[in-house]
Design goal:
Largest sheet: 7 strands, mixed
Shape: elongated
Strand order of the largest sheet: 1-5-6-10-9-8-7
Number of strands: 10
Radius of gyration: 35 Å
Bound molecules: zinc ion
Distance between the termini: 54 Å
Number of helices: 14
Order of helices and strands: HHHHHHHHEEHEEHEEHEEEHEHH
Helix content: 25-40%
Strand content: 15-25%
């Protein structure tokens, strides 16, 4: 039964009683419409007048208000449709109407020179081939738009931190992620008995090689390479034997800072980190320094900032303390300077280390570090 006959009958008369039948029927109509449109494109009439007439005939056949095929579909299929079938008929009718919009612009085809249309016509309908299933190339269709990506929240956070230190005259230094035990532990004054060297904390490749557990080995590498004075930050990936949970990941990002010069004191450390915290989290932020211990710094400290959520009043995020710990820091241990080939009698320095991922969680209000590494587009496109 030709399509113009079918649209003259109701669904009941056509024996269509379920959603599947409706879908199939509409697919047939859409295919018929698309085929007629393609035929018009490949037909390449010799004069523009003839083309105009063909386009108009096609539009009238499908879109005419009175007795056009779409109007008939509306009258005979949609209007009398049963309550059960009405949603699926309505949905398909809308799709058909959208597809039919391409007929409105059929005239635009004239913009394609007749010669080119002929080329496509030949390509689309080789003389001795069967009919084409897919549509022919239509130069009038808009191109495919590929969605633009955006920077990953960790990358954004890292760059923001880098910017602050670059503006202070520091430069960025990198190093290998597969590191020797010497650079990762020995040169940093971490004794052989230190628990962090345990298999349970460190991912070893063999007895002398490991995946670096922090970015600190680059401190030694940079000291050896450049000597003093030295002002660097070291962003990069680190690895630890941690089970993934909402606050731990076996791979994470660190930024480490190192300043070595004559007469560097703890006052330089405090001043710089206080400036950094206010730049990053806002002028109202207060910093707090507490003593701590790291083998590679002496004295060592931990920096906390006043909680950005409750402004120091106390809330669940800061565990009611009003403070959030944000990094470790300290004066570079003389032994570490010596291992880097720098004379601790002439030079002194300070260093800090922070977790970029945790900063991103804080900054963007994310409650699970795993989200950062699952590459779920629904999450990532929010940034
Ligand atoms: Zn708080």
């Amino acid at each position: 039964m030709p399509i113009e006959e079918k649209v003259g009958k109701t669904l009941a008369e056509l024996g269509v009683a379920d959603a599947q039948g409706v879908e199939a029927l509409f697919a047939e109509v859409r295919a018929a419409m698309e085929k007629e449109r393609e035929e018009l494109i490949v037909r390449a009439p010799s004069t523009e007048k003839e083309r105009g007439q063909l386009c108009k005939a096609l539009r009238d056949r499908w879109l005419a208000r009175k007795n056009g095929l779409l109007t008939q579909v509306h009258e005979h299929w949609l209007e009398p449709a049963s309550k059960e079938l009405r949603p699926v008929v309505g949905k398909n009718f809308n799709m058909l109407r959208q597809a039919a919009a391409s007929l409105e612009t059929a005239e635009l085809l004239e913009a394609v020179p007749v010669g080119i249309r002929k080329v496509f016509a030949d390509r689309i309908e080789p003389k001795d081939s069967v009919s084409i299933e897919k549509g022919p190339l239509d130069l009038t269709l808009p191109g495919y738009r590929r969605p633009l990506g955006s920077l990953h929240p960790v990358t954004r956070m890292q760059r923001e931190i880098e910017e602050i230190f670059l503006s202070l005259g520091y430069w960025i230094e990198g190093g290998p992620e597969i590191e020797s035990v010497y650079y990762n532990f020995d040169a940093l004054n971490i004794p052989e008995t230190h628990p962090s060297r345990d298999d349970w904390d460190t991912l070893y490749i063999d007895a002398t090689t490991l995946l670096r557990t922090h970015t600190s080995p680059v401190q030694i590498r940079a000291m050896k390479k450049y000597g003093a004075p030295l002002y660097i930050i070291i962003p990069g990936k680190c690895y630890r034997h941690d089970n993934p949970d909402s606050s731990h990941s076996p791979m994470f990002h660190q930024i480490e800072g190192l300043a070595i010069d004559r007469d560097i004191t703890f006052a330089d450390l405090k001043g710089t980190l206080d400036f950094f915290a206010r730049k990053l989290f806002g002028e109202k932020i207060r910093t707090r320094f507490q003593p701590s211990f790291f083998p590679f710094t002496e004295p060592s400290g931990e920096v906390a900032i006043s909680c950005t959520l409750c402004d120091g009043q106390g809330c669940p995020v800061c565990k009611e303390s009003g403070w959030v710990e944000v990094m470790g820091c300290g004066m570079v241990h003389p032994e570490v300077l010596r291992n880097g080939g720098i004379d601790p009698a002439r030079y002194s320095g300070w260093a800090f280390g922070l977790g970029v991922d945790r900063y991103a969680l804080m900054k963007y209000g994310i409650n699970d570090i795993q989200l950062l590494f699952q590459s779920d587009v629904r999450f990532l496109e929010q940034f």
